[in-house]
Pyridoxal phosphate-dependent transferase
Amino acid sequence: MSRVSSGLWQNLIVVQVYGANTGVGKTIFSTLLGSHFTKRAGKTRWNIDYIKPVSTGPSDEADERYVRKYAGHPVSTLFKFDEPVSPHVAARNSDYIPSDDVLNQRLSAKLKNHASACAMGRGEIGVSIIETAGGVLSPGPSGTPQADIYRPLRLPTVLVADHRLGGISSTISAAESLIVRGYDIDAVVCFDDQSKLENSIYLQEYFGKRGISAFVVPWIPDLADCSEQEETRRMGGYYDRGTRAGYMYQVAGHIVTRHVERLKKMKNMASRTRKAIWHPFTQHKSIEKADDVLVFDSAYGDFFQVKHTNKSMQTIDHKAATPLLYPAFDGSASWWTQGLGHGNPQLSLAAAYAAGRYGHIMFAGATHEPALTLAERLLAGMENTRLTKCFYTDDGSTAVEVGIKMALRAACKRYDWDGSTEDIGLLGLKGSYHGDTIGAMDASEPCVYNKKVDWYRGRGYWFDYPTVKMRRGRWIVEPPAGMEADFGPEHSFESLNDVFDNEARGYSPRYEQYIMAVLDTLVKKEGRKFGALVMEPIILGAGGMIFVDPLFQRTLVRVIRNYEFAPVPSPTPPDETTWTGLPILLDEVFTGLYRLGRFSAASFLAIHPDISVHAKLLTGGLLPLSATLASASIFDAFLGDEKADALLHGHSYTAHPIGCHVANTSLQEMEVLSSGAVWDRYRRGWAKDVTAIKVHRRDREKDTSVWSMWSKDLVDRLSHHESVDSVVALGSVLAVSLVDKKGSGYTSTAAVSLREALLTDHAIGGISVHSRVLGNVIYLMASMNSRPAHLAQVEAALLLKLDFVSGRVPG
């Protein structure tokens, strides 16, 4: 998950040479390619650099000696180990084992230096040839497979095929390993051993059908029983002929063409996008020029690879040596979906496995293992005695809509209402938003998202509530402006844990009195009917990262479950898992599945909903999938003698096995992370004392700690900043409300300048951050496996750039 630029320069062509196996001729091809460019006829002056990131074995046997001998160029070896074994074995006996990050950073720096040298060379074009060690998945010094180590750089690749018996299989396997990790294979090179195996003939046809060019290179001279002098003569002739041969002009020309095509695509993507794409949540009048469109080339770990714009280049020195792409921390977790980072190889392999095993299977009246396993995993993870059934849909909005259908049917059946002729509304919270489909949209009050949607009706009532935030170093529970009489005065707490101490805070008679008064007015005086309470637990995401007082939500659920919503009292429930009052639907699309540090955000409230909705992190950000969990008493409302009594809802891709299998892999990985050392480090940073951590380690399932991946010091410092009104931090979420004298809310532009500075001002902070704003609120979000070192860099950049846009430091 290195923070390095993807390797794309205007004046530097980078070629990463992988081998389908060890001993397939990578060094010979690399020498041929470098020698060809050095002696290539034409006006272009080529500046060649050979790079061997890792080398093992004695110096007199090293590849660099060979390349210097036959191509006349030195080889830059970044890390060398004397023992002639695999790098991960050789590194064990060395004084220093470079991490994957260090290896990529050293390689990236080497490429930048080469680009800089070419920029000073008056028209020189650089060619950096990077030769890997062993096969595609051979381990590096850290033990990580090479293809995973170098993936953040996403360098154009040439794969040297295996010419030996079994080489067809190993070559195709190597190519698929690269492709599933997001590499572009520019070419496959096959040495023609002139045997009956005919590997090169088969591989040319195989890869040609798949759009990958394959080239045949003449067989290496027979060096058996040769003296050193004769070997030098034969190989020297081989390289001399190859340098000028047509096959090398074809290979090299193809590599150059691919580079030029990539540059052209990157240059034109923004303008092509303006012509063809209708963006979500975008006022297209604001996209006046191509520079207004962000172009992403790829992503890996926590970082996007973003194309530089004219604006971002303004703060860059030595522009000619600067890569066309730069890494930007994905500060919105890609609209809250990223759980395990971009390009995660485990999720990619899981998707490939399920695609190969199943493709897609229709799900009505059928089952398959990934969907069944995932349903059982979700239900068990909720630790909820009520939830027993799992209904699959495609995204959070449709999952909420399904949940609303479930709740309304159950309420109408219980109270003998006719929802087709009577107006049945929903109860919720002000500022909440549950999705963009019409039904889910109607579950929210009028706002910027829906006020100009022609079918929107807003069928419900939305409660006011106190909010939690840190201001000037103190956690406070603040009532809505002018409603102190209803909710009481502002309360201050020593720690975030105290805010969530359900046992100490209990239930609030004042909150209960307010809720009861509202319900009496709505139900008894106005005669309105309601079918469910729908709310996001703890944090309202799209509404502006609003942190609701958990005590209010607990009290609201308690009152709803005890309130009589029909003139005739409802029957006594047969057991405690049957819903009472109204069904409670918790929308955990944003807050659930470890987003706030726990599997379910409902656990913070110590309540068991009747319906629970999950999406976003479900597949770790790889595929769209959602799940609506329901209790038996909700499920039973759809049992009947007619098909019309059933829940007639579904999608063509309901419970698609690829998504379900990826989700199982994702949840399993996040479960491991939740009990690992890194998360314990975060907890320690927020814990009151060490004892809490020791208790947690003995019984992780009963963890009641409240913490954030963002440091306590950062939150405190932000809360004291003159440009900041308040701060919220919980789990992976950090939200900063900026002061706006013109008024807060979604239409505020107070956070725009900070967002732009975080992304494009490379001269300040040392790291670029792609973030999103909700009016005057700028929020940042980590993945579940974000590295503390990266988050520390983001924190430093946030503080520095906040000072800059506030005028506290000079530009």
About this structure: The chain has a mean pLDDT of 90. The longest strand covers residues 46-56. Residues 12-264 form a domain with the Rossmann fold fold (CATH 3.40.50.300). The two ends are 30 Å apart (CA to CA).
